[in-house]
Structure formats: structure tokens, C-alpha cells
Amino acid sequence: MTMIYDNNYLLFAICYLLSLFFIIYIIIVIIITIIIIVIIIIITTTNTTTAIIITTTIATAAATTTTTTYYYSSKIIG
Q1: Which residues touch 54 (CB under 8 Å, ≥6 apart)?
Q2: Where are the membrane-spanning stretches (predicted)?
Q3: 54 neighbors 40 (Cβ within 8 angstroms)
């Protein structure tokens, strides 16, 4: 039995893999965010300045990662 790999099948496979990737990605981001919040709470009780610096850095990194991922996935789909 042979399978015909047309464009629609390939597109479906890519979209399916991307959706799986995004679900895993979102779960990882949520876990990391929770860990970061806990760390920030611990740091805030000791030193406010470092907490602000760390929060800003993490927020920037998270925004960059999300934007990059979205950009490349839209490139692949579109």
C-alpha cells in the first residue's frame, strides 16, 4: 500500500507538529514563570534592587523568545 504525499498532507503534518510544539512550549513557559515568580519573591524579601534588575531581564528574554517563536512558526505556516 502506497501513500501519496501531497501538499495538503505535508501542511497538515507540519501544523500538527507545530501545535504539539506550542503546547509543550506553553507548558514549559508556565513552569518557568512559576519558578521565576518564586525566586523573585525570595529575592524581594532580601534585596529590592536586584529583584527589579532580574525581573526586567527575565521579562525581556521571555518577550524576545515568544516573538521569535511566533515569527518563525508564521513563516513556516504562511
Answers
A1: 39, 40, 43
A2: 12-43, 49-72
A3: yes
Q: What is the pTM of this model?
A: 0.40
Residue where the block lists cell 523568545: 65
- Euclidean distance between CA atoms 65 and 62, whole angstroms: 5
Q: CA–CA separation, 35 vs 62, rounded Å?
A: 14
CA atoms of 52 and 38, how far apart (whole Å) = 14
Closest CA to 26 of 56, 62, 75: 62
Look up residue 23 and give its three cell numbers: 503546547
pLDDT, tens only, 21-78: 888 888 888 888 888 877 777 777 776 677 677 777 877 777 777 676 666 666 665 5
Total count of residues recorded for the chain: 78
